[in-house]
Amino acid sequence: MRHERQVELLRRLKDVDPLTAWPLAEHTMRNPASHYVDAARFEAERRVLFRRRPQMLGLSSECAEPGAQMTADLGGVPALIVRQTDGSLKGFVNACRHRGAPVSSPDGAPRPRISCPYHGWVYDLDGSLVARPYAEEAFADAPKTDCPLKSIYVTEGYGLIFAQAEDGEGLTADSALEGAQAEIADYGLEGYVLVESRENVWDFNWKLVLDTFTESYHIRSLHKNSIAPTYLSEVSICDAFGPHPRMIGLLKSVMEEIKKPDEADWRFLPHTTTQYLFMPSGLITYQRDHVELWRMTPISVDRTLVRTSLYAAEAPTTDKARGYWKKNLDLLINVTGAEDFPLMAQIHQNLKSGALPEVIYGRNEPALIHLHTSINAALAAAGVNAAVASADEG
Description:
By secondary structure, the chain is an alpha+beta fold. The protein is 25% helix and 29% strand.
């Protein structure tokens, strides 16, 4: 993030009393509890939000070499992203045209061609069918030119990879980021490398994953024995880029920066957890010396696969460096896995009981309000649940 932007954000804090002043949204928001637990709505979300909108899959470095592969679930569509020999990316449905078996390599390592493990059909990196071993005559009336891998939409930019299963004509990184690219470009994500990824399945609705990252209000209570001592729970900074909110959590040390008399000496990022929530499926967190990427894959209305990836500016080459990054990822997983996500599972069960008609998002949770307003609006625009939650004062 450019220094000018950091100074601009710090100026917002200069006259804020962290004990009494909140950056408030205009209204509270009441969101029906059914939006988290209704199975029919969930299927509509998968179709409208996860199939027909861009999904952020990861950083470019994860699929860098020709023949490298990346897989994802796009609203139930199995996707395969492949780096081409010319450096571009192509996306396919991860299914052989013969009998539908997945064709991705087990480890994602670069391969000169794509092959099906079921009957050995072979495809070139561009998805064209090359060979049907020992059976060409058996398929003589189904020309190979009629049997390429089915394409999906994929794009890349600012060090990020996006894919879309349906309605993705004209997809670009700029259209996917919807204005956030001006800030994202400053981080130089093209130069970051994957250190490690971990996956867990949780028994709650996918939206509850994002909810826990949209406000710092909970830090004082939920994280009182872990990260709370270093954070300003009462103050955060929220902006939005189209449907995507950006929420910046602040360390207490940030207040020392604005005491410096010369703005040229102000530094914002070392004192923040800066989170870009890309509706619907993921978020990027910049945290001092590394980048985290969270990707949510809805499995059912009450089950979600969460993939957490940590990236560094350079690959660790020593045991000390590897240990340092492992410790960082362990801390991240331990806090969310022991404090945030178990509580989200309890919240899901409470909402599933039907005892609560709605949840209420406070004016001190502007990113949360923006996220769910965007989700509801996208579904309403597609003719789903037209009676979206209203925003009411008080």
